[in-house]
Amino acid sequence: MLELSNISKSFGSARVLDGVNLLIPPGSRTAIVGPSGSGKTTLLRLIAGFERPDSGQIMMRGRALFAGDQFVPAHQRKIGFVPQEGALFPHLRVGENIAWGLSGSRHEKRARVEALMAMVSLDSKLAQRWPHEISGGQQQRVALARALAQQPSLMLLDEPFSALDTGLRVATRKATADLLTQAGVASILVTHDQKEALSFASQIAVIRHGRFAQIGSPFEVYSQPADEETALFLGDALILSADVAQGKARCQLGDIPVDNASISGVRRIMLRPEQISVEPCDSAAGLPQAHIVDIDFVGYLSTLTLAFAHTDEHITVQTVTRPGWLPGMKVNIQINGCARVFAL
């Protein structure tokens, strides 16, 4: 559907994108994630045609959108764009917003608007409302319907759910993902919310300092991150130093199998919270590994600060809350699965 080759962009002396390459398969959902200032929105604007790259090539379905002196303007690209907070026209009613840019008779436009509103699960009665008279989630659906009205080949979503309350954000994101899949429209979501990216996407591209640090499936980038920074950006993780040899890592938690038996030496390893179980120590089972120093309870999950008898260092782990946990309680740690070992 879309291919970016060696895309670079600078604003003055600041290089925002540096040799970016990305493939977007037809009908796929791609999430571009990264910290503020990493180049996410700039990349989206280049794809949309709002900005011109300094170098590289943008191809869509074999057609050059940007290559050398060739540049296709935004209104000729058949790319939909849903900005943050919808950006609806305040002087137009909901139906008029959706119909904006449509051609045809008044009857044809009305029929098309009704079909689009049904597609995004909006009551047709809302067509006569003003944007300020509907909820935030409804506004985002109107913005999506307006973008879909142009029958785009590709949909760009620039943090469109960030202004919504948590529950509404999840429901709107799920509805948007389902709708785009049903319509067969490839999409690119820009977000700094890792949970949103993991939930929405079939492909995740992690951008940092104007370059992609890793591109892969949500499960791949979460469970096999390329480096520590990527690991921590995509969710909670316990990172430890370890002596790796023969497929095992010797660290504070004992000997843990690793995901790459060919790596050896002093390395850094990663465990996700779901791999760590903290169990009260059974006095009959021998000496405890650690004791609880502090507990940060946040409901289903708790963050425990643990101290170990054989070292002065503390480690912090996030795990499922158990009743009866108290500071000073002696515990053992069980590890499920393999640790991710980072290459140098």
CATH architecture of the largest domain: 3-Layer(aba) Sandwich
Tell me the structural class. Answer: alpha+beta
CATH class of the largest domain: Alpha Beta
- Straight-line N-to-C gap: 35 Å
CATH level-3 fold name of the largest domain: Rossmann fold
**Gyration radius, rounded:** 25 Å
Share of β-strand residues: 35-45%
Strand arrangement within the widest β-sheet reads 7-8-9-3-10-11
Series of H and E elements: EEEHEEEEHHHEHEHEEHHEEEEEEEEEE
User: What level of helicity do the residues show?
Assistant: 10-25%
Total DSSP helices: 8
Shape call: globular
Would you identify the CATH H-level superfamily of the largest domain? Answer: P-loop containing nucleotide triphosphate hydrolases
Number of strands: 21
Largest sheet: 6 strands, mixed
Mean pLDDT: 89
Unreliable runs: none
Count of discrete domains: 2
If you had to describe this structure to a student in words, what would you say it looks like?
This protein is of the alpha+beta class. It has helices at 40-48, 94-99, 106-119, 136-148, 166-183, 194-200, 218-223, 228-233; strands spanning 2-11, 14-24, 29-33, 55-60, 63-67, 70-71, 79-82, 154-158, 186-191, 203-208, 211-216, 238-245, 248-251, 254-257, 265-271, 276-280, 290-297, 301-308, 314-320, 330-335, 340-341. The strands form 4 sheets. It has a 6-stranded mixed beta sheet, with helices on both faces. Helix 3 crosses helix 4 (136-148).
Can you tag this structure with a few keywords?
transport, five-stranded antiparallel sheet, alpha+beta, globular, 344 residues, six-stranded mixed sheet, single chain, membrane, nucleotide-binding, Rossmann fold
